Amino acid sequence: MALPVVVPKGASGCMSLRLKVALPFVILTLVVSVIGVYVVTRLVTGTLSERLTNQLLESGRVVSDSFVRQESAHVGAARIISFTEGLAIALKNEDHETVLRLARPAFSAAAIENLILISPRGNEVAHFLIDANGDFIQVDLDTGASRSPIVAPFLMNRNPEEAPRRGLGANLVNDETYYYTALPVTVDGEFNGVIVIGTSIRTILPAFKTVALADIVIYGANGQVIATTLGTMDETILEVLDITEAQYMEAIQAEEIVSGDNFNYSGREYTLGRSPLQIGNDRIGVFAVILPADFVVDFASSNRTTYIIVFTILTLAVITIGYFVSRMIIVPLYSLVNTSLAIAGGDLERRTGITSKDEIGTLATTFDDMTTKLQERTIQLEKANETLKQIDKTKTNFIQISAHELRTP
């Protein structure tokens, strides 16, 4: 006879084992996914303004490095020309004819734009120039180069070991701005004059723009724009880019790029950063790099949906894996629960059927063994009960027969 199944008190209102196992797992997965999306979109990709600033810094470093390389090219060309046999002695003696004869081929071979050779007495012995059309010009007048800040100290100190000096300056012959490098000319440790090598800003800036991937501005000491690759040096762009002397001093004394304000030019937004133009230990001016505001695409915004989709797929995959893992735990437990309920209802023939080798399998095997022993004990008790019933019946019959005999004479 089957007994009524007893449901534990409060069991109907409790959270099921399936939820107890799966729910924390799902919540943890969702939390990790949300944090992952945040970290990737916020910390890894960064904001547009941060990356635009980083690009300005990188472009500024590229421009500075390009000027350093230009300086190295100047020094190399100057040494080749000054070491031309006989040139140093001719320069010292102000032998114009010999200097011109020796310097002209060296000037052409060095592929430079401006060469000035100055004697120890401060006289220009040779001055060669390549103009904007690529034509060679030999300058026969004194342009005052010996009085420039990068030449005068050499003539005063007459130190053949003095380090190169550099600076930005205008050539009075064509009124163009050049980047100049000056070195002493020496032979056997004797000061024989000064050599000045120059490259026009007109030539330098477009090449540097290609390398830096940014427009470039060169400022004069008063804050006015000397040259720029943005626009055509018209009044509109000059009004936008010119700075005050105070801003110039702030920029030339800064250790890193000083960010300027955004501005609009020709219907497009730009952002600008200024930095000191430092070659060696000399700060010879201020330059700026300019980038369009849309130079860096907002990677975080454009790819946020992609990240969300990727993390959603990963989350679903993890939940699916977790579902099957939880079933490996929950299904045997449900089988064990159903079997225990059936046995509690009197079905002692019921077994779990679980044969796994883990802890649940051990529990199920032990439970099945216990059920088998309970079944055997129940059968024994039923047999004993049947025997007692037979004995009781026999006893009753005996008493009835004895009573009948006693009543009958």
List keywords for this structure.
single chain, 409 residues, alpha+beta, Beta-Lactamase, six-stranded antiparallel beta sheet, 10 helices, 12 strands, disordered N terminus
Which strand-content bin applies to the residues? 15-25%
CATH architecture of the largest domain: 2-Layer Sandwich
The residue ranges in which pLDDT falls below 50 over 5 or more consecutive positions are: 1-12
Question: Which of globular, elongated, flat, extended, rod-shaped describes the shape?
Answer: rod-shaped
Arithmetic mean of pLDDT: 83
Q: How would a textbook summarize the main sheet? A: 6 strands, antiparallel
Order of helices and strands: HHHHEEEHEEEHEEHHEEEEHH
How many helical stretches?
A: 10
Computed structural class: alpha+beta
Mind sketching the topology for me?
Blueprint: H1 17-44, H2 48-82, H3 87-92, H4 96-110, E1 114-118, E2 124-130, E3 136-138, H5 152-157, E4 165-171, E5 176-187, E6 190-200, H6 201-212, E7 215-219, E8 225-228, H7 235-241, H8 245-253, E9 258-259, E10 263-265, E11 268-279, E12 282-292, H9 299-344, H10 359-407
Antiparallel strand pairs: 1-2, 1-6, 2-3, 4-5, 5-6, 7-8, 7-12, 9-11, 10-11, 11-12
